[in-house]
Amino acid sequence: MKLIEAKKQINLGPARALQLALSGMLYRFFRSGITVAILCLAVAFLVHTLMHGLLTHATEFSAFREIREQRELGALVGRMSRPDSPGMVLDSLAEDRSTRLDEYRTWGRLEDDELAQVGETAKRILQAESYLESLPDDNRAILMGDADILTLLRRFQQRAQYELYLERVEQLALRHPLDGEADFRRLVQVEWPRLSEVLERIREGQNRAIENIREAYPGIGIRQLLIEPPDNFAEVLEQVGFAAQEIDFGRLSEFAAWAEDRQRLEAALTERMVHTALLRRMNVGSEDLSSIAVFNWLASRRGDPQWLSGLLSQSGVEIAPERLDGLADYFIRSDRLQEVAGVEPPTEEAGIFSLEGRLRWLILLAFCVCIVGVANAMLMSVTERFTEIATMKCLGALDGFVMMMFVFEAAIQGFIGGLVGIALGTLLAFARGFVEYGTLLTLTPQIVAQIALAALLSLVVGILLAVLAAVGPSLVAARLAPMEAMRVE
Amino acid sequence: MEQTANQSATRTESAPADQGRDRAVIIRTLDLAKIYGEGETATHALQGVNSIVYRGELIAIMGPSGSGKSTFFNMVGALDSPSKGRILIDEVDVAQLSAVELAFLRCRKIGYIFQSFNLIRYMTALENVTVPMSFAGVSPEEARRRGMELLDLVGIADRWDHRPIEMSGGQQQRVAIARAMCNLPQILLADEPTANLDLATGESILATLQRINQERGVTVICSTHDHRLLKMCDRIMWIRDGMVERVESRENIKIKVGTIGGEQA
Ligand SMILES: Nc1ncnc2c1ncn2[C@@H]1O[C@H](COP(=O)(O)OP(=O)(O)OP(=O)(O)O)[C@@H](O)[C@H]1O
Ligand SMILES: [Mg+2]
Known about the structure:
heterodimer; A: mainly alpha; 3 domains; 21 helices; elongated; B: alpha/beta; Rossmann fold; 6-stranded mixed beta sheet; 10 strands; 41% helix; globular; binds adenosine-5'-triphosphate; binds magnesium ion
């Protein structure tokens, strides 16, 4: 005689489990609130760490990019005023950078094979240089003194100088650069003269180009040309050999205008009248009176652009007060950019999986804190309810149903805690970022996407952790005989 | 009949004596023992209980506090695992049942009235009563209807919307009773069902137990210190120190109740 037709025992559906989980949570509103709060804090910590990392990275990266752009713009002004230094040309030749190469090809009237040849030489020179630079300081001083590689090569064109160098290398028992003495000698005696001649041709070519620009716009300084570029300016530049197609003339003109005004201000600062008046007004020592000091003063509450503008106009420099404020903002920002970009600015855009060392450890730590916090919260919230589980089982609940109830409860708590935690963590990360970077805080669409991804991942992590942490103890409770579960403290 | 009952009451219930009653055995325990804890602190709550419960009888379990009554109920109700011995319900060994079969047994075959009620805190009286019905697959509407009927039966229909903490001990006890009866179990295990009730309510609860025992043929096992129960029950099992002291039939104890009543008066 079989007592039981057990298949009739119904495993209630998820809807009923969800309903029970919800009403249980509502009843223990305060207790489950605490659980949610712990979950929320854990997720918030994780989110905050992730997002702050992303924001820092993005801000540093964009600062770095802006600085590089400014430098390039600044360099352009220089390149249209005087020929590139031989070192710069050498670097470009060695680097195969296309825009510059095109310019040099035009100015030096170089054929392709010649260009390739000098490129090769340039690379060898840089190789020799890096070897010489890598020598111990005292040895290097004996061999080169203060000279750089180009000076050295020029000097070695005199036989006596080169002999002297060979002697010293022997005395110091050093290795020669490149593949030994013969190879280096070839560089010095054969390749360098040829390259030097090409460099000279390029220099002349660029000089001619600059001259052509001046002739095309007689009486207008190059700076002025850049501040207010004439209509066909790009074409003229192209004609004389400058690679103009990639220049953003709008930004260039803006940048040139700032630089121009700064220079005018700096010139005025050297005038005695302005100098003493400012020293008194700003209450600083003479050695501290730089343009950036003036900008900082203007940006501070004591700054008085109206007064400064008046002072400057007395010495014949007309800069409107608003313009002075603008200058201060612009250059303080540039200054801050340097600071933010740091010594080693990031080289690629940020992604949550590509954050570097220190941040990765922080995130791992945050993750561990998250796990411990969530596990503890769920363990408490489940053990607290062992009697309830036991009672349910006494009344005929199946283990699966009991588990389902707890999984739902954990998931709901994880979800709510996760959402609030994300909001809190995001808020914190942005507040901290704003305090650290002010208006430099950068939000590109790419970084927003990464932040959204970080938020989503944290939510999933929160829910998963909560559920996993709840499954353990509730599985134990569900497996025990009801009265044993009832006895567990 | 009386003779047989007297005989069986004297010592253990052996099969030959029972057959005279011509009743099916519904629960049988064989050398049932339960030890709580281990080593020094181990408590021998039950030490080899052999007992038989017949289908359809109302059996009272009496014994001093700490004698092992609740422990016995938990074992018989398949709510806890024995340290030793066997429990047969309808001649099937409970230890051999799967988890699903156990759930089925607890849900439909047995109704429990716990000494400490074990109501679910966040549920109203009615919800507490309907929980086992939902496990048995009764539709929510039907469960509510039957739940209200049962609450009415135990006299707290007006409290259906109250949570356990909003009710007195006696009211909670009555919710527990209503819950135990909701799936029309064949066996009702009542652990001191009148302990928290006033005389009148206690009386009516006992009357209810007797009624479902007589009208529906439900086997009722009831532990109590309440001597009024002795008038209603078929047999009494006396437990002391985790052992069955004696089993008496009602006919045998009527006199005793009188004497006890006489002494008290
Ligand atoms: N979980 C437990 N752990 C250890 N000992 C226990 C446990 N439960 C009960 N006991 C012990 O087992 C013995 C029997 O307890 P039980 O609850 O069965 O007594 P009872 O007859 O129901 O008493 P009462 O009439 O007071 O309800 C007691 O000595 C008690 O201390
Ligand atoms: Mg008890």
